[in-house]
Design brief:
Layout: H1 2-45, E1 66-67, H2 69-87, H3 89-93, H4 95-107, E2 108-110, E3 113-114, E4 117-118, E5 123-124, H5 129-147, H6 151-165, H7 181-198, H8 201-221, E6 230-231, E7 236-237, E8 240-242, H9 249-264, H10 267-284, E9 294-298, E10 304-309, H11 313-327, H12 330-341, H13 362-376, H14 382-396, H15 411-425, E11 430-431, E12 439-445, E13 448-454, E14 459-462, H16 467-470, E15 495-499, E16 504-508, H17 509-514, E17 516-518, E18 521-527
Antiparallel strand pairs: 1-4, 2-3, 4-5, 6-7, 8-9, 9-10, 11-14, 12-13, 13-18, 14-17, 15-16, 15-18
Helix pairs in contact: 1-2, 1-15, 2-5, 2-15, 5-6, 5-7, 7-8, 7-9, 9-10, 9-11, 11-12, 11-13, 13-14, 13-15
């Protein structure tokens, strides 16, 4: 018995040591990613318009100096906000807030609806429903998912409300923001979150307009899948199903709306379920042998009309997994695990081909890695985790010495994916303000967290929490496009033992969320009471 006990203790100690070795390696990846993000932010701020502080869409020598809410606003500015929050609180509280004030001052074209702004001429274009939808879905939702109710949240609330009040497309279901799957999906994803966050019944009413239009008209009229474009006057579409960006948004939005209706036990949930299940089944039947999605299909035959593989594959599979979370039907979970297990076949894949690079654009890597990160948070398939590590190194090496990558607004996606990756490596733990030389790496060991902090001096570290519940008021942690996955989360009202070699203290989870100062070294965090 003594020998058995000693052996078990030795094995436990070895596993513990291996866990800290992995945590230290994760800390290196954390620092590498944040350093790349900080370089890109500083590079872009040097190209801001000196008068308005707004960022142009493109910065090539022959590119017009144009700010658009659907490009620079949606894909670049929000991820510089999040970068500044992580790395430079003075820039976050100063320059980023100045940019918000000027964005409202110079780009509001009608009520809170923005328009394009010519930075050279100082001219504002007409109000853009597309700009409002993209800015909310791709940008302001991400800021809100991670930071909660900041001034950017309130910008989104009023902008989406004003846009829906000006919705231009007449249908028998009410006025809709658009006649295409991209923009209706953009609004649906924003409206669903705003409905739960605000409790304002208008947002759910507007979301249901879009949902009913697709469940009752578009999907039945387009072979069970969303049509890229649909004419609500003639009740006909273009017969296309697009599964990359600029098309997959309605698939994602419809499943999120179903999740909310399902939780509330509404009549719509019963009516929506078979239609959504058929939509997902048809999409899953169209994949290649590895489960990868094609860019665009003929809706009737499901034959690819664009045989390139979608770098947004995980956005759609996130919807598939959310449907599994709602229904418990294992085949949808199995489909997600299948595509994750096959990712090893897609190393160095040119997701977005370019003539000047065999690897294609960095943006294809950013979106594809983002796709995987959402899913491994729920299903940590080893092949997918290894693929994420390898492909992140490919993407990070695309950054030039000047901090830029390809000189266009999509570089915000570089920072988005780097941040998603860094937070996976730290299990959501982050310094209150990162500086070079700070490495935070962690490994989860069931309910315990093994944390490595490497730094020249003590650091205030903040722990993550159940943001889906506390920020978004969701009943469960559904997969959501533009989320920041929750890794090791602490409960506000649980006691945690925080232990190092020479010290041990007890904290409430709420204290860990606010931040505690920790010395460099190896730490174990584990709950000792509460939930």
């Amino acid at each position: 018995m003594v020998r058995v006990t000693a052996l078990l203790l030795a094995l436990a100690f070895a596993a513990h040591a291996a866990g800290f070795d992995e945590a230290r390696e994760n800390g290196k990846r954390f620092e590498q990613s944040l350093a790349a993000m900080e370089r890109l932010m500083q590079a872009w701020l040097r190209h801001a318009d000196p008068r308005t502080l707004l960022l142009p869409d493109r910065i090539g020598p022959n590119d017009p100096r144009l700010y658009t809410p659907h490009n620079s606003g949606a894909d670049l500015y929000p991820y510089l906000i999040l970068t500044a929050h992580l790395t430079h609180r003075d820039i976050y509280q100063g320059r980023m807030m100045d940019m918000l004030r000027n964005e409202i001052r110079y780009t509001n074209a009608e009520a809170s609806i923005p328009g394009n702004y010519d930075l050279t001429k100082g001219e504002l274009g007409p109000p853009s429903m597309f700009g409002a939808g993209e800015y909310a879905k791709d940008g302001l939702l991400s800021v809100t998912e991670y930071l909660g109710r900041t001034p950017w949240f309130y910008r989104m609330v009023d902008m989406i409300a004003d846009a829906m009040n000006h919705a231009p497309i007449e249908t028998k279901y009410g006025r809709l923001p658009a006649s295409d799957a991209e923009l209706n999906g953009d609004y649906l994803q924003a409206l669903m979150r705003l409905a739960t966050m605000t409790g304002d019944p208008r947002f759910l009413t507007w979301a249901r307009r879009i949902g009913d239009a697709y469940i009752e008209e578009v999907l039945p009229g387009n072979h069970g899948v969303p049509s890229s474009k649909w004419d609500f006057a003639t009740h006909k579409g273009d017969g296309m199903l697009r599964l990359r960006d600029h098309g997959n948004e309605t698939v994602v939005g419809m499943v999120l709306l179903y999740a909310l209706e399902n939780f509330q036990g509404t009549e719509r949930a019963k009516r929506y379920r078979p239609v959504i299940q058929n939509m997902l089944d048809r999409i899953l039947s169209s994949t290649n042998e590895d489960g990868m999605l094609y860019n665009q299909l003929d809706a009737a035959t499901l034959k690819p009309v664009n045989t390139g593989l979608s770098d947004n594959w995980g956005y759609v599979y996130g919807a598939v997994y959310t449907f599994y979370q709602c229904t418990g039907e294992a085949k949808y979970r199995d489909a997600v695990r299948k595509v994750l297990s096959n990712l090893g076949k897609y190393r160095n894949w040119a997701w977005e081909p370019r003539k000047d690079s065999k690897l294609g654009s960095f943006d294809g890597y950013a979106d594809s890695i983002e796709s995987a990160l959402y899913l491994v948070n729920r299903e940590p398939v080893p092949e997918a985790l290894a693929w994420i590590d390898s492909e992140m190194q490919v993407m990070l090496k695309m950054q030039r010495p000047d901090g830029l990558v390809e000189d266009w607004y999509g570089e915000g996606n570089f920072n988005r994916t780097a941040m998603l990756y860094a937070l996976m490596k730290s299990q959501g733990v982050r310094p209150e303000e990162w500086k070079p030389g700070i490495r935070v790496g962690a490994v989860r060991d069931e309910k315990r967290l093994l944390l490595s902090l490497q730094s020249p001096q003590p650091v205030k570290l903040q722990f993550d929490y159940a943001r889906h519940r506390r920020v978004l008021n969701l009943d469960r942690n559904y997969v959501r496009l533009n989320e920041f996955p929750e890794w090791y989360t602490v409960d506000e009202n649980t006691l945690y033992r925080v232990r190092a070699t020479t010290s041990e203290q007890t904290y409430l989870g709420s204290q860990l969320i606010a931040g505690i100062t920790m010395t460099p070294g190896e730490w174990t965090i584990e709950p000792i009471s509460g939930k």
